[in-house]
Amino acid sequence: MEYGTGNDHSHSKQSCSGYVYSNSKDKNNCTTSCTVTLTQPAIITCAPLTTTPVLCNGGTTGTATLDELSITGGTAPYTYLWNTGVAQTTAIATGLGAGTYTATITDANGCTKTASVVVTQPTALTATYNAVSPGCSGGLGSITVTGAGGTGPYSYTLNPGAVASPTGIFTGLATGLYSITVTDANLCGNHHNRYKHNRRQCDNSESINEHQCKLCRWQLMARPR
CA torsion angle for 76, 82, 86, 87 (degrees, to 10)? Predict the structure, then answer.
């Protein structure tokens, strides 16, 4: 940069180190010089982001948090922007599903800092079933249900009757249609299955004996609700 009035001239030069050197000369060829130090804000930094996981697999109850008090550097005030489906501009992003989220911090000069974090979720809530069917002589059956995935411990409810069991074992069941609900510690899942006892048709012959009748035992069939 060069400027002057009449025969006066001044020359300025900025170096990579952040210093500016200025040399001025008047019409009598007298000179003077000075050095000015240019400063800049420190780089914006922040503490690692924190999260709360999604309660239920496939849900959107997760959160991600930026600790505002941990932000240093740059020039206050700061603004925030999350890369969520609908842009969120507070320090805490809510309504998140499982995935990676990034917060962009912008200071008063437009300088930015980004930080990312992963929001997790439990595995899907599932259940396995084992049934003991009654014989042809009018006995009673049972169903044992075992939960998996989600967040234990689990609770089990058999309908009709709203029969609760902490173990998932239901006994004394007559023929009929049953619905079993498995619920985990986060009240997730409501995993329903229907069970129906169907009786195979036995031979109507009067000569049929107990041994033969056991061959037409109850069947237990399961299908998703």
Answer: 20
